[in-house]
Every structure is written in structure tokens, then in C-alpha cells.
Design goal:
The complex is a heterodimer of chains A (267) and B (92). Chain A is an alpha+beta fold and 267 residues long. Chain A contains 6 helices and 15 strands. Helix content of chain A is 24%, strand content 33%. The chains are: A alpha+beta (267), B alpha+beta (92).
Chain lengths: 267, 92
Amino acid sequence: MNLGATVELDCPATQPNSCAPLQISIGNVPLSLYIREEALLAPALRRYREFEQSSENGFPIILNQQEARTQESGEFSYLLDDAKLILGSRGAEFHDVRHEYALDSLLRILLTMVLLPQRGFLLHGATVVRDGRAYIFFGRSGAGKSTVASLSPEGSVLTDEISLVRYSNGCWQAHGTPFWGEFRSAGINRLFPIAGLYLLKQAKEDRVESLSVKQALRALLPCVLFFASEKRAHETLLRTLMGLIEEIPCHRLHFRRNAEFWKVIAA
Amino acid sequence: MKGHIVRNPKLAWREVDGEMVIISPEDSQVHELNETASLIWKHAEGKSLEELAERISAEYEVSLEAARADIGELVAALEQKQLVFVATGVKG
């Protein structure tokens, strides 16, 4: 699949028979969402409003249009309940999307595939910006991601649920995402160099523990959103994660669910 | 000791600090090997169990007999997890 640099993304062979697309950009991946149904378009406009960005070369995503084929056969497909994603090098189709949650989920899956060859991935984590650098607090459900976000100053949180990590301009950067917990419409469409990665662990004291490369890999792997089942895709992911943790320090953050944790991070 | 060791070709893997981290793409299961098992994984491909025993015996300065026993156990464990296969009668 040639989903390398975004500039290499092709335009669809035929423009879908639809209204003007909703053009957004997430993690510097320009996307053109062709949505006919008002019931899906209205929530999409709300959810992704911070990420709207005009682009002539947005990767086309066509919703619920059986007749508009962007490719002869999909190179990657994924079935999520009733909804289906078909991804080719020239565009994607989302089928049987009945509500905004399915649209959002398929969009995340699509992004994981598009970001993969670009040294990027999505991570279950909250990203908070402090002094111009991004701190990623990651962990599984219930680890405390939204707590960390809620304890951080307004305007400093790039996401409270799904972080986007990508290598660009010679460094590892965290991008804002529209993927927030409880389906809130939020997010800041900016990117910041990553200062550190923190695996969240609730504890009775605030303490930072450095992780070795192997420990960091072990911590990150279950928190990466990943849907491919090909060997090569997993090899690419491993390479990307190793590149990240060889450059960016990774820690386990023992924290008491209050804002004092910043003291041990700054120390 | 008979047979040659073949890594499961479906697996993605990476060496981290001298130890192997192996992912099964079909179910995203992650396997981590200890130092000795990693050594087997790294050097086993296409080798006979006997060749591997000789190598381990030399590298760890243990008797060939002890190496054979350890390898037999480790390879059986790796085989049970479908990380490697032991092919018999192909080479040798």
C-alpha cells in the first residue's frame, strides 16, 4: 500500500457523486469525507470542527455509497460490528455506517493504517503540553488518562484519550486529535515535540520510574491502536516503536490522581 | 537429537537488549524470550538440534549433555507456543 508521504496520496479516479467533502486534517493527514446523510454529517461537523482544513489533495473517504468505488479491490478491509472499512491506495470506503460512533471508530482504524508507513501511530494516551513540549500519559482504560487531562490547565490538552505520535521534521511529535473520551468535541490541531512518555499507574505516592527499552516496548505495545494482521505491518510498528523509545525517555508514573504529579515529572 | 529448527515464518520479531520480542500478527500476542531462548531463536534457523547444542555448550561452557537437555526443553516450549517448528528428515 502506497500511503507514504501525504503528498503522494492519489486523487480518486472519479469524484464521488456527492456534495462537497468535509475536509479535515488529523496528524497532518489531509482527509476528504464525503458524507451524504445529514444524520452523520452534522455530528461529524461538530466532532471534527477544530480539525477542518481545506486541502485539494485530501485522501478521499466515501461513506455509505455502494456505487462510488475508489478502487477495484481493497488492499485492507476491516469489519467493525456492522460497519466496514475498505482501504485502497487511492481512497477509502466506509460502508454501513449507522451512527457517528462507527464513523469515528473507522476513522481511527484508517488513520492507524495511513500513519504506519509514515512512522506514526495512535496510542491510548492523553497528551498535555507544557513549556512547548508534549507529555504523553498512556495506559489502558481506567489508567487515569482523563484524570491527568482534567488536572491540566485548559488549553494545554491535545487529547484526553487517543494520542497521535509521528516522526516528522527530524523529531518525534505529538499531534492533537479529535478523539476524546465520552465523545466530547474537543482537541487542538497542533503538534509539539515529545518530551516524554509516561505509563500511568495509580499509587499512594507520586514517583517517576525510568523504563528500559524493553520495558518501554512491553508497556507501549498493548496501548497502541493496531488493526493490521500482516507480519510486515507488525514489523513496521516494531521498528517505529523502537525508533521512538530509543530517542524519547519512557517512564512509569506512579501517581495519586492529583496535580502534584507534575512536581516529580519536572524534577 | 534429531531434526532442524525452523522459526514460524508468520511471526514479526525484534531483538531488544539481546532478548527477543515476538509478535503473532494474527492475534497480536506478544512473546518475550529470555536470554537463552533468545539465543536459540537467533541462531536456530535451519540448524539441527545437535548443532545448536554444540554451540550452546561452547558459548556457556556447559557439558554437551547438559546443553542437549536444556535445548530439548526450551525448543519444546517454543514449539508448544508455535514460535518454532522442528522439521525432521529434511536436512542433514
